[in-house]
Design goal:
Layout: E1 2-6, E2 10-16, E3 20-23, E4 26-36, E5 39-44, E6 47-57, E7 62-67, E8 70-77, H1 79-86, H2 91-95, E9 99-101, E10 106-111, E11 118-119, E12 124-130, E13 133-138, E14 143-144, E15 147-148, E16 155-156, E17 161-164
Antiparallel strand pairs: 1-2, 1-8, 2-3, 3-4, 4-5, 5-6, 6-7, 7-8, 9-17, 10-12, 10-16, 11-14, 12-13, 15-17
Length: about 160
Amino acid sequence: MKQLTINDELKLDVDVNEHSLCVNNKEQPFEVQKLGAYTYHLIQSEKSYFIQIIKIDTPTKTVRLKVNGRLYEVKGKDKTDLLLEKMGFSSAHAVALNNVNAPMPGQIVKVDIKVGDEVKKGQTLLVLNAMKMENIIKSPGDGKVKKVLVKAGDNVEKNHPMVEF
């Protein structure tokens, strides 16, 4: 099961099988024909759709496409994304290397980076003390530190921005 959001408005729960599409628990058979590298013809419920994929952004799970000439942006969430969201975490924070936000409320114990540092994926950025445990906050990807928004001793709430890349 995947959840698709179309143009930040319409949310659909979708399951795709070989020849059918289940949208919000309603099965809909379809036929698809590949016309080119990024072009498809889809027939569903006696309706015809010409689909052209414009851009695929894998880290954000976003696809821009044209359907019969109209532009759409489709964002996808898989089972893992939905579970993380249900638990109060956002997988988007771990994928896009823009910001590192506090995963939970706590106090900053130590900051291991400074503005201008080049960091690698998995490198320790800082240490957050939460619920009497030290949590090592690591870089979700390679990048250059633009801003460090916290210092040792700062108290942070969940999703508080700590580092910008």
